[in-house]
Amino acid sequence: MQLSAPTPSRLSLYLDLIRWSRPAGWLLLLWPTLSALWVAAGGFPGWHLLAVFTLGTILMRSAGCCVNDVADRRFDRHVKRTAQRPVTSGAVSPREALAVGAVLALVAFALVLTTNAITIAWSVPALAVTVLYPFTKRFFSMPQAVLGVAFSMGIPMAFTAVRGEVPWLALWLVLGNLFWVLAYDTEYAMVDRDDDLKIGMKTSAITLGRFDVAAILAFYLLLVAFWGVSLAPLGLGAAFHLAIGAVLAQVAWHFALIRHRTREGCFRAFRENHWIGFTLFAGIAVGYALR
């Protein structure tokens, strides 16, 4: 007699819901946020802000996954890669998933309350754009741009937490980060392009068509240009210059991965993107440490 598979516990389902076993998503959020925190503070920002922004990033990304899966549950069932997600498969109800997301967002907000008034104020649009993003895939031809805004909100919040203001430097970093999100999330969208075309989902990979690879390279180079030029006056020295060179080497590697547009190559390129963010952060952190 064949034994049935054991029923997953609620905890394991919730961990699957927030992609706990796939940390690449929150790392993509974390590295630019920590980079901004270091720049705003002129070096190590202190343990309090480091803890607030690290834990807050993980919590908000997890809450975003809950909202995304509820919003996309009818689409995800038609995509092989996402068909077994807890909400899509019915293992977790939409109401339950939203409740989990709400709890995570409230804990993140509690962390923000330990900062200052302007940072608390910035957390409101940050939450709003996080909730809005999943629904833009129905009507906006480049929803990855909305995701770019959502994934960049930690940058101005880092500056407000340290300095109480958002200088022009922060906005240039946001713009560069937005182009980075366009690059890696277009790689991600290339994985599901055939499925998305069938179900009517809108993505940058579909909108860009045969220019997808060229556009991704341009997005990466714009990231390097905006961050390289805006941070150059800070005098971060050889460590930052080496980091920029290492990022360009990774961009060349990504081109090799995605040039033939295979699902495996595009998905690997997306999953390895957090190393670009880490490289930039390491160049900034070491640059300040050696100044």
Describe this structure in words.
- It is a single chain.
- This protein is mainly α and about 290 residues long.
- Helices cover about 75% and strands about 0% of the residues.
- It is built from 16 helices and no strands.
- The protein has helices spanning about 10-15, 25-40, 45-70, 75, 85-90, 95-110, 115-135, 145-150, 155-165, 170-190, 195-200, 205-210, 210-230, 235-260, 265-270, 275-290.
- α10 (about 170-190) packs antiparallel against α13 (about 210-230).
- The longest helix has 25 residues, at about 45-70.
- The protein is globular and about 55 Å long.
- The relative contact order is 0.12.
Summarize the structure.
76% of the residues lie in helices and 0% in strands.
Keywords:
single chain; 291 residues; mainly alpha; 16 helices; 76% helix; 0% strand; disordered N terminus
The number of E-state strands comes to 0
Please describe the biggest sheet, giving its number of strands, its sense, and whether it closes into a barrel.
none
Question: On the 0-100 scale, what is the average pLDDT?
Answer: 91
Shape: globular
| Beta-strand content bin | under 5%
Count of DSSP H/I helices: 16
Low-confidence stretches: 1-5
Helicity level:
over 70%
Regarding quaternary structure, what we see is: single chain
Instruction: Give me the Rg, rounded.
Output: 19 Å
The SSE order reads HHHHHHHHHHHHHHHH
Cα(first) to Cα(last) distance is 69 Å
* Structural class by helix and strand composition: mainly alpha
